[in-house]
Design a protein that fits this description.
It is a single chain. The protein is α+β, with helices and mostly antiparallel strands. It folds into six domains: 112 residues, Immunoglobulin-like (Sandwich); 114 residues, no CATH class; 172 residues, no CATH class; 120 residues, no CATH class; 96 residues, no CATH class; 61 residues, Immunoglobulin-like (Sandwich). The chain is built from 13 helices and 40 strands. A five-stranded mixed β-sheet has the order 2-1-7-4-5, with no helix packed on it. A five-stranded mixed β-sheet has the order 8-19-15-11-13, with no helix packed on it. A five-stranded mixed β-sheet has the order 21-26-25-23-24, with no helix packed on it. The chain is elongated, with a radius of gyration of 42 Å.
Length: 750
């Protein structure tokens, strides 16, 4: 005791005067108990003093107890605040309260100082989604509605935003479309369009907290197919060309940050030289004082950092961008550069030369919709719909059965529309936030698609949800006095030592009262005042002292059903670039008629009853019928190619009541000549024959015959035993028919 007193006495002598400093954990009682330290008067560098709380970061200390800091604005407005690492002049006894900020991912950086990672497009998932949707649409169109194709009104179908997701597979822009726009008041852009992001600018910092330390300008350069100054819009600059944007040093409370320059507000590409590849570059220069050339900011030396700083008090240091003065990152090399470059494809509105598609015939099972396409959006970035309000399908996808049926009629309307990147992305984001398999709690902690405001809101919601349950349980139990009065009194008298603290901090807001007022009260009672009358009721209500883990469990539980739904509902589906459809009419032209000739020679013993000897012209693919009478025995009639005399078919005659033999050559598709040779009648009549007609191969075999049908590639398609007549339906194509007697016949099925 004597030794201790002697030491304390010595510390209060002359220049060795001492002070008692009480380090208090502030609102985070679970960080540990308050600690008292004896220090010499003078300057002291502030440390954390060992205080650590999972999910929070210690910002510094204050002479007053402060609520958890949730935003940069709240941090900037802190009074009597001393930042961690700074020096504090201590000349007497004092109590310092820890000031905490939310740090959900535990990386030591307040969440509000980190830029959200954009929700990245999962092309594998998108491809599966599109495939499933297309299969579903085709099944619907092949259902009962197909039986009455004209039952529906002739109108365009409703938009389906999921159709447009395909546009996101490539970096594609369209002239006249609005980009970098959403429906929120802050215009926080999460889709990877032209904007400042952590992977392309201000490495190690976020564009939302970077401000100018000196007067600068952001300069735009246009290359590729872009015309000079074709980009318009930006912060407070609607419909004005973006060439140079001032970036001044903040004065009089101005909060202008780098993100405000152009990437938060609507932009539009107004014109291009032609369709194709575009290049957009931007860089910061020193503010001009004359007519001389531009000088890059931070150009004084390789590590010059004098032109950029973090938003906040003037004591904040300039930003080094990880030791370099260059504020951008080259996406290909990963090196720090002075110029930010975007490369993308851009297209005009589509233009067509005609309003009628006369070439209705499909090839590869797709329509020739590029007929008359002059310029603008390629068909691969468009959707089609046919008459009658049928579903939208990718323009270059195979025709559905319903579409094939519709194309049998004249004046069928075909409508095209452009895919829309923003709309498709909106659909994708909605799907992802609501899907627990694809948007997890870890995605939330990694700040994927999460803004500081999102974090603050969800943290407040989760704390409120947890404490509301505890609050209701305690409220339902017996208490000597009203629960609210009990909590308020304890908060005012014990925690804050102020009769008006509760009213000042929460002001009658039940959400705030429960989420933030009940929490420190419960923590403090449980840890330090277990004899207090509220303690047994907290025990009975299953209060968990590991409140951060408990509220974390609430977050995990509700990440999709509450947070995901809230994010999905906030994603609007804008009507960008969707106002106009391009519609055409399919005209069913009469197919050209090719004439074929059949030559019947003059043969002794043969009288041609119809049509007569010589050449007879008939339309291609039509049957040719002729009748003859024989003076003696019937002859064998063979149809041969006129060009080379090769046998095409041995004909079978049918005897009628007039004593005439009638012959039919089915689907004449080449010039033929007939040849008559003497043989016995029964041999003539019993010859097998093969021909194609109406989507099938037809076979006549007077006696039992084995028939094998091969495709053009030599694959056996069909084998059957035939006696009499048989019809074999086949898809369109060329086939080789082989009979068991060696007869071989090529047939074309159409």
């Amino acid at each position: 005791m004597t030794a201790t007193f002697g030491l304390l006495s010595a510390l209060n002598i002359g220049s060795l005067r001492a002070a008692d400093v009480k380090w208090h954990p502030g609102v985070q009682a679970r960080a540990g108990a308050p600690r008292t330290e004896i220090v010499t008067n003078g300057m002291h560098q502030l440390s954390s003093n060992g205080y650590v709380v999972n999910g929070y970061v210690l910002l510094g200390w204050s002479d007053q107890r402060k609520r958890v800091v949730m935003s940069q604005a709240a941090e900037n407005n802190l009074s009597s605040f001393y930042r961690l690492g700074s020096s504090l002049d201590i000349q007497g006894n004092r109590t310092l309260y820890a000031v905490w900020a939310l740090d959900k991912n535990g990386n030591g950086i307040p969440d509000y100082q980190e830029e959200a990672k954009p929700v990245r497009l999962d092309t594998e998932y998108v491809n599966k989604l599109l495939s499933d949707l297309e299969a579903k649409r085709r099944a619907e169109e092949a259902s009962g509605s197909r039986r009455n194709l004209r039952a529906a009104a002739v109108s365009l179908p409703k938009w389906n935003i999921k159709d447009d997701i395909a546009a996101n597979k490539e970096n594609v822009f369209f002239v006249g479309c609005t980009y970098n726009e959403d429906t929120t008041s802050t215009h926080e852009i999460l889709e990877p369009l032209i904007a400042f992001y952590g992977n392309n600018s201000f490495p190690g910092s976020g564009s939302h907290i970077i401000t100018a330390a000196r007067d600068m300008e952001l300069v735009f350069n246009y290359g590729g197919v872009l015309e000079d100054s074709c980009l318009v819009g930006g912060k407070r600059r609607p419909q004005k060309a973006i060439l140079r944007i001032p970036f001044p040093k903040p004065v009089s409370g101005d909060t202008l940050v780098a993100k405000d320059l152009f990437s938060r507000d609507p932009m539009t590409f107004t014109r291009i030289k032609e369709d194709g590849d575009a290049v957009l570059k931007m860089y910061f220069v020193k503010k001009k004082t004359g007519k001389g050339p531009d000088t890059l900011a931070n150009s004084g030396a390789g590590n010059d950092t004098s032109y950029f700083r973090v938003k906040g008090p003037s004591s904040y240091p300039s930003v080094s961008f990880k030791g370099q003065g260059k504020p951008f990152i080259d996406q290909e090399t990963g090196e720090y550069v002075d110029t930010l470059t975007f490369q993308f494809q851009i297209f005009n509105q589509p233009e067509f030369a005609a309003t009628t598609i006369r070439s209705r015939v499909s090839y590869g099972d797709t329509m020739r919709l590029n007929y008359g396409h002059l310029r603008g959006t390629p068909l691969k970035y468009m959707m089609r719909s046919l008459d009658g309000g049928w579903n939208w399908h990718p323009a270059d996808s195979p025709l559905t059965d319903v579409e094939r049926d519709l194309l049998q009629d004249d004046s069928v309307r075909v409508c095209l529309r452009q895919l829309d990147k923003a709309v498709g992305y909106a659909a994708y984001v909605k799907e992802k936030f609501m899907d627990p398999e694809r948007y997890t709690y870890q995605n939330f902690l990694d700040r994927e698609g999460v803004t500081p405001a999102d974090i603050a809101w969800y943290d407040e919601y989760s704390r409120y949800t947890y404490f509301k349950e505890i609050y209701d349980k305690v409220a339902a139990s017996y208490l000597p006095r009203n629960l609210m009065d009990t909590v308020i009194q304890y908060y005012n008298d014990v925690l804050m030592s102020s009769p008006t603290a509760w009213a000042n901090d929460f002001g009658g807001d039940i959400t705030q009262e429960i989420a933030y007022g009940f929490a420190p009260v419960a923590d403090d009672i449980f840890l330090y005042q277990q004899t207090y009358q509220l303690y047994p009721h907290l025990i009975a209500a299953d209060y968990d002292t590991t409140e951060d883990r408990t509220t974390g469990a609430v977050e995990r539980r509700d990440i999709n059903t509450v947070f995901g739904k809230q994010k999905a509902d906030a994603v609007a589906v804008p009507d960008w670039c969707r106002e106009e459809s391009y519609c055409f009419y399919v005209k069913r032209d009469a197919p050209p008629v090719h004439q074929r000739s059949v030559f019947i020679p003059t043969v002794e013993g043969v009288t041609v009853v119809s049509p007569g000897v010589g050449y007879t012209s008939i339309p291609s693919q039509k049957n040719f019928t002729f009748r003859v009478k024989y003076t003696g025995e019937p002859m064998t009639v063979t149809a041969k190619r006129l060009i080379d005399g090769r046998t095409v078919e041995v004909l079978t005659g049918t005897l009628n009541a007039d004593g005439e033999y009638e012959y039919v050559i089915r689907r004449v598709m080449q010039d033929l000549t007939l040849e008559f040779t003497k043989t016995v009648a029964n041999t003539l009549v019993d010859q097998p024959s093969v021909w194609a007609n109406s989507g099938a191969v037809r076979i006549h075999a007077p006696k039992e015959t084995t028939v094998r049908i091969y495709s053009a590639s030599g694959v056996l398609v069909k084998q059957a035993t035939v006696q009499g007549d048989k019809t074999v339906p086949l898809s369109a194509g060329l086939y080789l028919v082989v009979l068991s007697d060696g007869t071989t016949q090529k047939v074309l099925v159409q």
